[in-house]
Amino acid sequence: MSSESLRESETVELKKSLAELKEGLVSMVAILNKHGAGELWFGVAPSGKAVGLDVTDKTLRDLSQAIAAHIEPKVYPHVAAQTVDGKTCIQVRFSGQDTPYFAHGRAWMRVADEDRQLSAKALQNLILVKHRQGLLWDNQPTDLPLTALDEAKIRRFVERAGLPWDTPANALAKLELMQDGRLLNAARLFFAKAAPIQLRCAVFASTDSATIIDRHDFDGDILELIEEAQKYILKNIHIGMRLEGMYRVDVPEISTAALREAVINAFCHRDWRDPDYIHIAVFKDRVEIRNPGILLDGLTIDDIRQGNVSRRRNPLIADLLRRIQMVEAWGRGMPLMLENAPTVKFRQVAGLFIASFDRPSFLEEVPQKTVDKSKETTGKTTGRTTGKAAELLALLRLQPQTTTPELAAALDLTVDGVNYHLRKLQKMGLLQRVGGRKSGNWEVLEPADSAQAGRVGV
pLDDT, tens digit, for every residue of 192-207? Predict the structure, then answer.
């Protein structure tokens, strides 16, 4: 055998002599914990050059006993003398799937050609990976009775999935949502009569979370909340338009396809053991979709940005969404998101995975913030408004005695959101309060010139 074929890697470790036995056993464990199989050579320098050993039957027997004594759980490697470039060396070929493995009481992981001791957290994750099928939340039995599920929801899902319908129990069995006569957790997320989960959404006045101008919590099943999340985002970002022939087509400032993939990913891959919620946060400069649960198995953000990489925390939920064409079996969600929104940013903070989409409208507004203060003061009485602020002014021109709760209902805002716009409009000099809080009314100071509307936002 030629030494040219021997190079250290994630699955191959080279040692010059048996004096490095302890380090060699550490490498075996590191490779087993990462790849499940590999090779360890004695008598070969790290450069790949064969230096040779004095090998006897006792040498091989002692090496096998050392492996048995110092590696747990037990492994049963093939230990043999091999000739490399005319010199006698020892080859140890090993494999095992009973992770985590320990050498001299410690667990290690292979990174390139190095061995790194596992932290307590990393060791815990390795154990969870090993037992994942038994620990997956979505396929665990629940005490929820069949009568707690909505038959109409089950029927709609079955029809959408193109499956035949007979009874709810048989339909759930075909969807693999029952085990030994008991419902699994995923069935509750999709079909429970009582809203099983909650989605939290908010719109913020600036680029941070200091001031909330709208907040809404939605209760429902997983399919309902996926739709509510998308609708909430589209309601609170700018929508442009383009003409296709004789028809107007709405064009949101963020790709709806990318947003949809991000929302579905959040529900599909969140950690359902974590009691936190999925959050939709709409800021002036971005939209963030946050879900509990960081990436699995050492997967990095760089990995997912390269596409075609998928680790499923909830395979049963993912399979149900695949059945109704909401996700693809090949994990194409991330590539589709990147294709439609190349500037999307991902980060992991405090156990949350966050997808962040830039809002182009914010960049268009930035130059307005640098306008000379004297021009800003002069322009107060002719300021123009868009969106909810413009709608609010229009309502108050027609009905100046409208109350704040009535404005909130008419504009689909919270009372806090209405008060935010009222304060902004008063500060701009476009609105003032005449009389007391109960007996007074609003006076719009901006000229009612519809041709001016829709130019500069507040």
Answer: 999 999 999 999 999 9
CATH T-level assignment (fold) for domain 197-361 = Heat Shock Protein 90 (3.30.565)
pLDDT (0 to 100) of residue 381: 35
Q: Which fold would CATH assign to domain 3-130?
A: 3.30.950
- What is the SS3 string spanning the chain? CCHHHCCCCCCEEEECCHHHHHHHHHHHHHHHHHHCEEEEEECECCCCCECCCCCCHHHHHHHHHHHHHHEECCCCCEEEEEEECCEEEEEEEEECCCCCCEECCEEEEEECCEEEECCHHHHHHHHHHHCHHHHCCCCCECCCCHHHECHHHHHHHHHHCCCCCCCHHHHHHHCCCEECCEEEHHHHHHHECCCCEEEEEEEECCCCCCCEEEEEEEEECHHHHHHHHHHHHHHCCCEEEEEECCEEEEEECCCHHHHHHHHHHHHHHCCCCCCCCEEEEECCCEEEEEEECCCCCCCCHHHHHCCCCCCCCCHHHHHHHHHCCCCCCCCCHHHHHHHHCCCCEEEEECCEEEEEEECHHHHHHHHHHHCCHHHHHHHHHHCCCCHHHHHHHHHHHHCCCCCHHHHHHHHCCCHHHHHHHHHHHHHCCCEEEECCCCCCEEEECCCCCHHHCCCCCC
Residue pLDDT, tens place only, 242-283: 767 667 777 899 999 999 999 999 999 999 989 999 999 999
Q: What is the pTM of this model?
A: 0.57
Domain boundaries, the chain: 3-130, 146-191, 197-361, 371-452
CATH topology classification for 371-452: Arc Repressor Mutant, subunit A (1.10.10)
